[in-house]
Design goal:
With 360 residues, this protein is of the alpha/beta class. It contains 14 helices and 8 strands. Helices cover 45% and strands 11% of the residues.
């Protein structure tokens, strides 16, 4: 299996629901395990790592903790069969949305951390809505994360997801002042040497990511989660570069993998030439409200033939308008993302026809 060399690259993967399951939007998630795991093998076959059970998999937006736990176990078992790289989301979503205390948040993180470590995945300590609600300032973050880092069996990835991805995370790290929040994060890492593999940053602010990147210890990676500026951030500058943990690499896997191989060979210009044209599609999928980008990601997986239907857990396939989805198809088709262009065109035409846009 090919692997990236100069950068560590994870694609955050979506999940495929079981369309035969009799579920409701707020009920337990029912997954099509064959299609879901086959997509992970697709990503591994291109040499990308899989970021499992994270935002792209609809954590907190349809994928409940019992389903996420089973997903982590199954993906870890599949990863071992091919030597695939796997990072897994550790959160607190087994708790109710409101009313949790800090001790509840810590216990929820501990439960999920233990499951991921037992499965053999690299833990990603995901930003927690419950922590954002319960914390009174940066000291609460430092104490809770410090406890988790001290007990983690190996280095973890920290996760800073901006409020454009989840409004409930406003003021994460104890402040709405992003400079102060950055200071808290940097000090946390410095206080726990050897316990942080990297930081995934999803703020859609390239300049801020670069400034954070330059403050990190040399042993700590900056994983860009910036779906607006990823080519320039991964390419880097004279002072360094970002690795990647990106939702947009779910639909872009073949193109992204080829671009990184060019970078591995020292061809930075070729890397940019391959990846820069994809930014228009990414910006379209991730336009506000950004948290609904998953709908476009799943549409493209269906059009590309990775699954037999366009549906999502929680009914989230209805979260974007038909004009938005049609434009996503056009941009992806222009990039040559569909292995079977006729299949993609036929499926898009059927979707439009079902909802009254036939021939438009």
């Amino acid at each position: 299996m090919p692997t990236a060399g100069s950068r560590t690259v994870f694609a955050a993967a979506h999940v495929v629901p079981d369309p035969r399951a009799d579920t409701t939007p707020d009920g337990p998630a029912a997954l099509d395990w064959d299609a879901t795991l086959a997509f992970r093998h697709h990503l591994w076959s291109h040499g990308l790592g899989v970021a499992e059970a994270m935002d792209t998999a609809q954590r907190g937006m349809g994928l409940d903790w019992p389903a996420a736990a089973e997903l982590i176990r199954r993906s870890a078992a599949e990863a071992r069969t091919v030597g695939g790289r796997l990072a897994c989301g550790v959160g607190t979503d087994q708790l109710p949305p409101h009313g949790a205390f800090l001790e509840d948040v810590r216990a929820a993180y501990e439960e999920q951390l233990g499951l991921v470590e037992d499965a053999g995945g690299r833990p990603v300590l995901m930003a927690s809505r419950q922590l954002a609600a319960a914390a009174t300032g940066p000291d609460d973050y430092a104490e809770l994360y410090g406890h988790l880092l001290r007990q983690a069996a190996g280095p973890v990835i920290l996760h800073w997801l901006g409020p454009m991805f989840d409004p409930a995370l406003e003021g994460y790290w104890g402040s709405t002042d992003l400079d102060a929040a950055t200071d808290t994060l940097v000090h946390l890492i410095a206080d726990h040497p050897g316990k942080v593999d990297g930081v995934k940053v999803s703020l859609l602010d390239a300049g801020r990511e670069v400034r954070l990147r330059r403050r990190l210890p040399t042993s700590v990676r900056c994983y860009t989660g910036d779906d607006f500026h990823y080519p320039e951030l991964i390419a880097g500058d004279d002072h360094g570069f970002s690795d990647a943990l990106l939702g947009i690499f779910d639909p872009l896997a073949p193109l992204a993998a080829e671009a990184v191989r060019l970078l591995d060979g020292g061809d930075r210009a070729g890397f940019r030439a391959a990846l820069d044209p994809t930014v228009a599609l990414s910006r379209h999928l991730f336009q506000a409200p950004t948290r609904y980008y998953k709908t476009g990601v799943v549409l493209l997986a269906w059009l590309a033939g990775h699954q037999s239907h366009f549906s999502m857990v929680g009914g989230l396939q209805a979260a974007r308008s038909l004009p938005h989805l049609r434009r996503a198809y056009q941009l992806a088709d222009g990039l040559g993302l569909f292995p079977d262009g006729e299949l993609a065109a036929a499926r898009m035409a059927k979707l439009l026809a079902v909802f009254g846009m036939e021939g438009t």
